[in-house]
Amino acid sequence: MTSVDSEKFGNYIKTQEQAWLDIFSTYIPEEKTIKIGNGFGYLSELVRPLTKELSVLDIKTYPLTINKDVVQIYDGLTIPYPDKSFDTAIIVFTLHHIPQSRKYFQEIMRVTKKRIIILEETYDNIFQKLHLYYRDWLINKKAEQSCGLHWKSYFSRKELNRLIKSNKLIEIYRLTKKHKSYFKELAILDIHP
Ligand SMILES: C[S@@+](CC[C@H](N)C(=O)[O-])C[C@H]1O[C@@H](n2cnc3c(N)ncnc32)[C@H](O)[C@@H]1O
Fold first, then answer.
1. Does ligand 1 lie within 6 Å of residue 94's CB atom?
2. pLDDT, tens only, 17-38
3. DSSP character for 63?
4. Could you tell me which residue, 62 or 4, shows the higher pLDDT?
5. Rounded CA separation 67/139 (Å)
6. Residue 146 confidence (pLDDT) above 80
7. SS3 per residue for 145-168
8. Could you tell me if the CB of 115 is within 6 A of ligand 1?
9. Which DSSP category does 191 fall into?
10. Which CATH number describes the domain made up of 3-190?
11. Residue 175 main-chain phi, psi, to 5 deg
12. Where in the chain are the domains?
């Protein structure tokens, strides 16, 4: 990518992420927050002023990452913090990059006291899943974001509902947006006190 292309692409991603943040920003309590998955860092840095303390975790940074110095790199499996370290966890378009995403979700539950904000791409049938997987692969390639995709780590809409129910999470807000043939789904979930 030339530097002009990178700038254009960066601005496009930032605009998209700002639009999502406008929807869920009021649900971020001004306390301790962990953001899991950083991408190029735009969203993390837009979230930073909204919360008292922000930790950002990822397995790597990329040539276009704007906040390399604040990203905490870890093994991608065990969140390197004690139980209930954070009031809020935010995970945006990242669960499908994590092997055994359901098991990993228990890690998120372990370190979080109050609220989990998830934004994920979901599907209802195999055709939508194939389309979604292909689009993710293409977009990550264009973005030169070399992070793996895990077929089994995607959630259908039913599976996402099951995850919420089985963990006895309280749904504070839910938004499902049809995107291409599949969906983009935002869930703001409170942990039972
Ligand atoms: C497509 S990006 C989405 C990030 C989103 N745009 C944001 O700013 O929140 C997915 C990110 O998840 C990261 N990632 C992959 N596996 C991870 C893991 N086990 N824990 C945390 N982040 C992970 C990737 O390195 C990449 O930065």
1. yes
2. 999 999 999 999 989 999 999 9
3. T
4. 62
5. 21
6. no
7. CCCCCCHHHCEEHHHHHHHHHHCC
8. no
9. P
10. 3.40.50.150
11. -135, 125
12. 3-190
